[in-house]
Amino acid sequence: MPEQSRGRDLPRTLTASEAAALLGVSVATVRGWADQKQLPSHRTVGGHRRFEVEELKHWLAARGAPVPERVRRFVRTGGTTDIQPCPQLARELNSRTDAVVQRVVDGYADEVPTWGSRASAPALRRSTVRFLRVATAALETGNVDRSVDRAEIAGFRGAMQGDQGIAVTLELMRLAIALGAEAEDAIGGGAVTEPLAMQSLLAVLDHMQAAVMTGYQEAIRARYGIDEFDMPGTHLSGYQE
Questions:
Q1: In this predicted model, what pLDDT tens digit does every residue of 127-171 receive, in sequence order?
Q2: What number of other Cβ atoms are within 10 A of residue 3's Cβ?
């Protein structure tokens, strides 16, 4: 079994809550297993525990447990998931985090009813910043895979909580609108001069939205024991197991 380690730059790592959602157990169980070194985990430089997807697969396989569908990786078909890196746009959007958050928060008004219960301003800020960091990381490196992984996990975790899964997709849509507005302002004002910057941002958001919906589908399968599930009007033909 892999030993605990510190400071490793791990690909596709999960928090304890994400690992718990994927394995179908409680966060306390995941932490207990990790403390007892029954479940492979790693520590970041800051001391935070992280779990690697590939190690979770091996851990399950070693115990004769089938790897749940939700732990299997979804990959794009018909081409690469890499895009043209846009580090300039990534840094500019990160510097505008407060403006992006404010756009999302201001998008709600008590006079205008919306679907479901409205998240609090702090909760909106947390989800907005989380998705913003995922998007800008993809723009910085040009590698969309990590964005897809994280967004898929968000969709899965949300759907396991019921209607929250739909809320995740709606929040991502509002973030996309806010990011597009800030990106347009940055490009129009000359702060970002990279070619195809807006197109790259939209591509990243497309991947993230599709991944959230994929995670949502996997959660529905897990919750209700359905082998195959396609949301009405939605067919994620771009993903395969």
A1: 899 889 889 989 999 988 766 666 766 666 666 566 666 788 888
A2: 7
Where do the domains of the chain lie, and which CATH numbers do they carry?
A: 13-67 (1.10.1660.10), 77-230 (1.10.490)
Residue 213's CB: how many other CB atoms inside 10 A?
Answer: 22
Chain Cα centroid distance, residue 234: 19
pLDDT tens for 172-224 read: 899 999 999 999 999 999 999 999 999 999 999 998 888 888 777 766 666 66
Beta bridge partners of 76: 239
Residues 53, 9 contacting (CB under 8 angstroms): no
N- to C-terminal Cα distance for the chain?
26
> pLDDT-derived band of residue 7, with 50, 70 and 90 as boundaries?
very low
d(CA 216, CA 211): 8
Sheet order of strands, 42-43 included: 13-14, 49-52, 42-43
Tell me the three state secondary structure of residue 194.
coil
**Is residue 45 within 8 Å of 79, Cβ to Cβ?**
no
Neighbouring residues of 82: CB distance < 8 A, sequence distance ≥ 6: 142, 143, 144
Residue type, 15: T
Residues in the chain: 241
Is the Cβ–Cβ distance between 59 and 45 less than 8 Å?
no
What's the whole-model pTM score? Answer: 0.67
Burial degree of 137 (CB within 10 A; 0-12, 13-18, 19+): middle
* Amino acid making up residue 188: G
Q: Which two tokens stand for residue 123?
A: 């909760």
